[in-house]
Amino acid sequence: MHKESPLPVKKRTTVLSSRLALFFAVAAFLGAQQNPSPQPVTQTLAPPRPGFSFPQKQTLTYLVDWRVFPAGTAILHFEQQDNVEKLSATAETSGAINLLFHVSDKFQSTFDRAKGCTNQFDKQTVEGRRQINSTLKLDYGANKSILDEKNLVTGQNKHVEQAIPGCLTDLLTGIYYAASQPMSVGQSFPLPVADATHMVLVNMKVEGREEVKTPLGTFKTVRVQPTAEAGVVKNRGNIWIWYTDDDRHLPVQMRARLFWGTITFRLSANEAR
C-alpha cells in the first residue's frame, strides 16, 4: 500500500496552502512556477462545440479537503458581458490550516465566448508572507503575451513578453473551458494554456464514467485526467476532474493526488440563472 510522505506539519501545511490557490491545486499541472514545456506549443484552442453556451450568470462553491481534514473553500463566479465571459474566483483557507498558514487569493479571467481565447488573466495572491499581484494579457493582434508582476513584500517588478501561436486559454479558465469540448470515453482533446512566462499543451483524457457523491448531491459523471509534458505533477502525482455526463459538463469534483497528500474539491452549491 502506498504511504504518503510524512513531511513535518508546518512544511505540509505550507505546501498545501500554496496549492490551495483556488483551482491551482488542480491546475498546477499546467506548468505554474515550473520550467517551460520542452517542446514549443504551436496548437491553438479549439472553439466551443456547436450549441454550447457559457452561463450568463453562475456561482459555484466548492469545499476543499486535504486528506481527511477540511482545508478551505473556493468560490467561482461567471458573468456574461456582451461577447466576453468574465470568470472571477476566490480561495480561502479555514480551520486549523488557516491558523498555521493563511491563504486569501483572488483571480479574474476574461475570455471570448465564441472562440474561447483568454484576453486577460489577473492574480492577487496572499499566501503566508508572500503577496504578489500579476496581470497576463494576451495580445492576439501582435501574437504575444505580456506579463506584469509585482511583489508587494519586496517591491520587485517583473515584465515579460513572449510570442504566442494564437488562441490560448489560461490556468483558471482551462478547467471550465474544457466543458465546451466533446467528451467521449476513451478519447482525448488538447488544451493549449498560457501562464506567466511559458505555454503548456495539456492533454485531457476522458477515462470513464462514474457516479460521484458531493455535498450538493449525487451526479453521473465522466472522469477526465489532464496530463502535460511539464508541470509540478509530472512524475509526482495524478489529477482528475469529474464533469457531469450531460450537455453542461459541470465540474462537480476535482482531485489532486501528489507526493504531499491528496486534496479534493467537491461542489457544495450551484447558483445559476
For this entry, give a set of tags:
10% helix; globular; 273 residues; 4 helices; mainly beta; disordered N terminus
Beta-strand content? over 45%
Q: pLDDT below 50 for ≥5 consecutive residues: which ranges?
A: 1-38
Estimated structural class: mainly beta
How are strands sequenced across the largest beta sheet? 8-7-6-5-4-3-2-1-15-14-13-12-11-10-9
Q: Separation of termini?
A: 46 Å
Q: Could you report the average pLDDT, rounded to the nearest whole number?
A: 80
Element order, helices and strands?
A: HHEEEHEEEEEEHEEEEEE
- Sketch the major β-sheet: 15 strands, mixed
Percent of residues in helical segments?
A: 10-25%
Instruction: Report the strand count.
Output: 15
Q: What is the helix tally?
A: 4
User: Per the principal axes of the C-alpha atoms, what is the gross shape?
Assistant: globular
> Radius of gyration, Cα only, in angstroms?
18 Å
Could you please describe the fold and organization of this structure?
This protein has 273 residues and is mainly beta. The protein is 10% helix and 52% strand. Strands 8-7-6-5-4-3-2-1-15-14-13-12-11-10-9 form a 15-stranded mixed β-sheet. A hairpin with a 5-residue loop joins strand 7 and strand 8. The longest helix has 11 residues.
Question: Secondary-structure map with pairings?
Answer:
Blueprint (H helix, E strand, L loop, with lengths): L8 H11 L4 H4 L29 E10 L2 E13 L2 E10 L1 H6 L3 E9 L5 E10 L2 E10 L4 E8 L5 E7 L5 E2 H7 L10 E8 L2 E17 L2 E12 L9 E7 L6 E8 L2 E12 L1
Parallel strand pairs: 9-10
Antiparallel strand pairs: 1-2, 1-15, 2-3, 3-4, 4-5, 5-6, 6-7, 7-8, 10-11, 11-12, 12-13, 13-14, 14-15
